[in-house]
Amino acid sequence: MGIERRHRAFAVALLAVALLAATGCESAPDAPARPSARPRPSAAPSAPVARVCAEPAAGPAKAPAGAVTVDPAILGDLAAKTESSPPNTTFWLRPGRHLLEPAPYAQVIAKEGNIYLGAPGAVLDGRRTNQYAFGGTARGVTIRHLTVQGFVAPHDEGVVNHDMADAWVIEHSKIQYNSGAGLMAGAHQRVRANCLRGNGQYGMNAYKTGDFIRSLLVEGNEIVGNNTDDWERRRPGCGCTGGVKFWAVDGADVRGNWVHDNRGAGLWADNNNNDFLVENNLLEGNDGAALMYETSYNAIIRNNMIRRNNWVEGRNGAEHGDSFPFAAVYVSESGGEPRIPARTDRIEIYRNVLEDNWSGITLWENADRYCNSPANTSTGYCTLLVKDTGRCARPAIATAPLYADCRWKTQRVDIRGNRFTLDTSVVECAVQCGRMAVLSNYGTYPDWSPYKGKRVAEAITLKQGNRWHDNVYRGPWSFVTDDQSRRLDFAQWQGTPYRQDAGSTLDPRDGG
Predict the structure, then answer these.
(1) What is the mean pLDDT of residues 485-492?
(2) Are 176 and 196 in contact (CB under 8 A)?
(3) 350-376 confidence digits (pLDDT tens)
(4) How many CB atoms lie within 10 A of CB 310?
(5) What is the pTM of this model?
(6) How far is CA 463 from CA 29, 101, 143, 329, in A?
(7) CB 407 within 8 A of CB 370
(8) Given Cys at both, which of 131, 264, 410, 475 links 511, Cβ 3.0 to 4.6 Å?
């Protein structure tokens, strides 16, 4: 799992999220298609917050007809009855604390089509002994109304769907207080109305061996307080933290979630993702960016409320003299690519409200990061346009088409119809917290790089179709272009040669 750092180069369909500018609510923890070109800037309609940690939907109080009843008084009853029953069996877990055999690899190996239903109060507890709760490669497994907690999955591994099987459905469940990731993902997985809380690394790690996740739905979940083990501090630069991490996912709908108070980023799409729809989410109070879209392609990001994010990481950078424009929405080496099929051929960011974050949107491209470069922290990976990484070498990389196709480019990003407000008294900052940016670094290495100097900085700023327009700003905003040293006021940003934010307005008073 990689992270790109500048210093290297340096419901439920009805369940949605409140897109309100009022103070957010907090849950009480348990014990252990192509849009129109010029929308008017406005918030999306409000809807109930996905408050599933405090108000989970109750499971069936009685066993459904034909279900196998699982007894919490019998050690290992769930795993044993799963093993002895045929595929497509429904299991009903009685109220109480269910335990597996006391061994690290003791787990439930699900069979195709199995359904696991928890009664009110049913908890599957790993006792900080078992590594995994549900594993195996069977397709079409369903888990509903079950609390899964206390498992100790290793770093980068997960507790539920440990083996990344396809077409699982996880609904109305609490997956909490585990090490590693609460869940892994397979193709065609549906994750709806769950509480993914307080897990050691991620709420969900959407990674599958072989990079083959297609059609992922993440809807109406509360994703809160994850990365309790603070992996970025334990392994600096690992890029392995946050609420949800997506890796090489082709086609994801992420909607109606409440993603809040995670250590690190809230949502992080990292490495060759494509065709994302991120809409109607409330992203707030995350230590890092609300949303990172890195070395990926083609996305629609719309109708989200994004507030009070990036205070920890943004302030930490400023206090240590780092002038990089850390932002609530961070687009890194990602852009629209018409040659890769998706619902859009751009990255479209529109009709969002960004309120009192540490800065707004940063578009970044590392001039030294491309296939075969030592600055490519996604080691061994190349772009989706070049299947053979070895082709990205001299002399061919210096000429078309490889000069363009061997690097992930921040291009065709359309930022329109958004509202950006900043009250510096709320964020408690004086400088560096109210910036928009489109920039790169000065290309320097390796010695065979065809991207040295200002080539990439000039391209991302002026030549790659990255546009802000028809937005509303309130607060002391400034604008960074080309590189970290160039800071513009609104008139300069709108003027030649940048010509950004046509049709936009700015009121420099602190927002409210």
Answers:
(1) 95
(2) yes
(3) 999 999 999 999 999 999 999 999 888
(4) 29
(5) 0.91
(6) 49, 60, 49, 21
(7) yes
(8) 475
Across the range 76-82, mean pLDDT stands at: 98
What's the rounded Cα separation, in Å, for the pair 360 and 328? 5
Q: Which residue has the tokens 């809230």?
A: 266
Instruction: Tell me how far apart the alpha carbons of residues 491 and 498 are, in angstroms, rounded to a whole number.
Output: 10
Structure tokens at 1: 């799992």
Helix (H) and strand (E) counts in the chain: 7, 39
CB 192 within 8 A of CB 137: no
- Count the residues in the chain: 512
Q: 432-466 pLDDT, tens per residue?
A: 899 999 999 999 989 999 999 999 999 999 999 99
**What does the block give as tokens for 182?**
């609460």
Which candidate, 157, 193, 186, 215, places its Cα nearest to that of 1? 157
- How far is it, in rounded angstroms, from Cα 287 to Cα 107? 33
Answer whether residue 326 shows pLDDT above 70: yes
Query: What is d(CA 302, CA 256) in angstroms, rounded to the nearest whole number?
Result: 11
Integer Cα distance of 220 and 258 in angstroms: 7
Q: Which residues touch 420 (CB under 8 Å, ≥6 apart)?
A: 354, 360, 436, 471, 472, 473, 474, 475, 477, 511
Token digits of residue 423: 């009250």
